[in-house]
Design brief:
Elements (H helix, E strand, L loop, with lengths): L1 H35 L2 H13 L8 E5 L3 E5 L8 E6 L3 E7 L3 E5 L5 E5 L3 E2 L3 E4 L3 E4 L8 E5 L4 E10 L2 E5 L5 E5 L3 E2 L3
Antiparallel strand pairs: 1-4, 1-7, 2-3, 4-5, 5-6, 8-11, 8-14, 9-10, 11-12, 12-13
Length: 185
């Protein structure tokens, strides 16, 4: 009986020792992997992970500047043409190579456009039928009703109580709920 107990204890010790050795081995491999990397890359990665906000990042938006812009599946005029975007359409910048910019549209589609076809002018796309009000309040005067797909100029990207200031192409300036538009953040 004493012998069986000793064997049981000895096996537990061996298993525990094996686990410790396994962890040491994995840590040594990870350490050697890190040593192979460029130190500035490691610190830069750690810096981004430590200081980047958990909820996301600040997206950069621009709008299409030319009357009609061809979107490609790669950064070249020789690439496949995917679709055409109209003037004023807001796009999110994903990658900026200068002459070519990878953009994301409201449907989450990715494509490439020439950098010269983008404007710094901010616009937003109405995603649901919405109302433009005179002030940042549901009870304020109704200035216009806009349908899904209408492009509005964004006059101020600041959100105040869920409202942003916009301008319709007909000159109407007012406030729209941020939940009814795309291209803000």
């Amino acid at each position: 009986m004493h012998n069986k107990r000793w064997i049981k204890i000895h096996r537990k010790h061996q298993v525990r020792h094996l686990k410790v050795e396994c962890v040491k081995f994995l840590l040594s491999k990870f350490k050697s992997f890190l040593l192979c990397l460029n130190p500035s890359f490691v610190f830069l990665s750690l810096g981004f992970s430590l200081f980047a906000p958990i909820h996301g990042y600040a997206a950069e938006f621009r709008s299409i500047q030319s009357p009609k812009v061809i979107a490609y599946d790669a950064p070249s005029v020789e690439a496949t043409k995917v679709y055409i975007m109209m003037e004023g359409y807001p796009v999110e910048i994903v990658v900026n190579l200068g002459a070519w910019v990878k953009v994301r549209d409201q449907a989450r589609g990715l494509s490439w456009v020439e950098g010269k076809d983008l404007s710094d002018k901010r616009t937003v796309l109405v995603t649901d039928n919405a109302e433009i009000k005179a002030s940042e309040n549901m009870n304020s005067t109704l200035l216009a009703t806009v349908e899904k797909g209408v492009i509005l100029e964004l006059l101020s990207p600041n959100i105040n109580h869920g409202w942003v200031k916009v301008k319709h192409r007909d000159g109407i300036i007012g406030y729209i709920q941020s939940s009814a538009i795309w291209g803000l953040f």
